Amino acid sequence: MRKVITVLKGDGIGPEITDEAIKVLNRVAEKYGHEFEYKYVDIGGCSIDKYCVPITDEGMEQCKNCDSVLLGAVGGPKWDNVDPSVRPEKALLAVRRELGLFANLRPTKLFSVLSKASPLKDEVTENGIDLLIVRELTGGIYFGKRDTGEEKGEAYASDEMKYWEHEIERIGRVAFESAMKRRKKVSSVDKANVLDTSRLWRKIMHKLSEEYPEVEYEDVLVDNTAMQLIKNPGRFDVIVTENMFGDILSDEASMLTGSIGMMPSASLSEGTRGMYEPIHGSAPDIAGQNIANPLGTILSAAMMLRYSFDMAKEADEIENAVNETLKEGYRTVDIMEDGKTQVSCSEMGKIVADKIC
Ligand code: IPM
Ligand code: MN
């Protein structure tokens, strides 16, 4: 198969980690006789520096005219004080919105070989952690009306959070369908004791749950979810939630697995095209040192093969290669433990790639 992949390396460690994912993708292409063609587009701070905008119109067109998008990370302190309308993150939100990527899947799995890297006690992790966060990605407070101003000599700011029925229904459906392929449990997370958006959310989720009688369904308040994730993460299978709650909870959940550097994500639309990226940021403090963990990006590339290219065997092969690499004791510094072998970002990419032959 021939596929065109738009690569958005971005800022900070973005270029280093995407290079390793490409190394692995190339190995898959070689082994299985596929052809992956990469089109590189600047996004975020590097684009602001070159073109004064976080993504150009041509860059956006390229994202729309390809088979899938692979992203590293955007942003950094250098651009913290630019005009909010051209912040690096703006480009990421624009791509999500323009490509209609409403469903963000963030699988959180504790690799058993990494159980020591998890900050949780053994008795909490011993039954394993394997949950999927389904985060709504193109609605809510991220895309609501914004207003800043001054009244009676005092500054104010407001961000609107609005949800439409269809936005809730379609993300709910992704969650129930995902649960059907997993352990058949959906935890819908909201703040229905306070917010109207959450009350609408809950109503629609309840209606949907009637269509999936095999799926065990529960409502959990977001504050309680934050606690349960630490206390008893094994109770969750699929968590479905709105944009900002999902952003926060997925960072929390990532730590259960030992490092945020391990966690991949897929952002999907109604069609097959998706955007794939690790959930972590650009980590400017370690950029350029070749010490970042590329596994979250490599696992994101595996998700691309699975969800957008229908290449399940190839995706399994990458995931197994990552597992083997960890089993053999190779670790980047973020997941390093006594007695293991510390490797650089590029070494880690090569070790994983070399397992695919
Ligand atoms: C994420 C990131 C983004 C988000 C930022 C960079 C805009 O934190 O993908 O989780 O908040 O969605
Ligand atoms: Mn985030």
What does this structure look like?
The chain is of the alpha/beta class and 357 residues long. It folds into 2 domains: 1-114 and 258-357, Isopropylmalate Dehydrogenase (3-Layer(aba) Sandwich), CATH 3.40.718.10; 119-256, Isopropylmalate Dehydrogenase (3-Layer(aba) Sandwich). It has helices at residues 14-32, 45-51, 57-64, 88-98, 122-125, 165-180, 196-211, 222-231, 243-256, 295-307, 312-327, 345-354; strands at residues 2-10, 35-40, 68-73, 103-109, 130-136, 146-151, 154-159, 185-190, 216-221, 238-241, 266-268, 274-276, 330-331, 341-342. The protein has a 10-stranded mixed β-sheet with strand order 2-1-3-12-11-4-5-10-8-9, sandwiched between helices. Strands 6-7 form a two-stranded antiparallel sheet. A two-stranded parallel ribbon has the order 13-14. A hairpin with a 5-residue loop joins strand 11 (266-268) and strand 12 (274-276). Helix 6 (165-180) crosses helix 7 (196-211) and helix 8 (222-231) runs parallel beside helix 9. It is globular and about 60 Å long. The mean pLDDT is 96. Residues 75, 89, 92, 247, 279 line the site of 3-isopropylmalic acid.
Q: Strand count, sense and closure of the main sheet?
A: 10 strands, mixed
Task: Please give the domain count.
Answer: 2
Overall, the morphology is globular
CATH class value of the largest domain? Alpha Beta
Topology record:
Elements: E1 2-10, H1 14-32, E2 35-40, H2 45-51, H3 57-64, E3 68-73, H4 88-98, E4 103-109, H5 122-125, E5 130-136, E6 146-151, E7 154-159, H6 165-180, E8 185-190, H7 196-211, E9 216-221, H8 222-231, E10 238-241, H9 243-256, E11 266-268, E12 274-276, H10 295-307, H11 312-327, E13 330-331, E14 341-342, H12 345-354
Parallel strand pairs: 1-2, 1-3, 3-12, 5-10, 8-9, 8-10, 13-14
Antiparallel strand pairs: 4-5, 4-11, 6-7, 11-12
Helix pairs in contact: 1-10, 1-12, 6-7, 8-9, 10-11, 11-12
The site of 3-isopropylmalic acid has 5 residues, from α4.
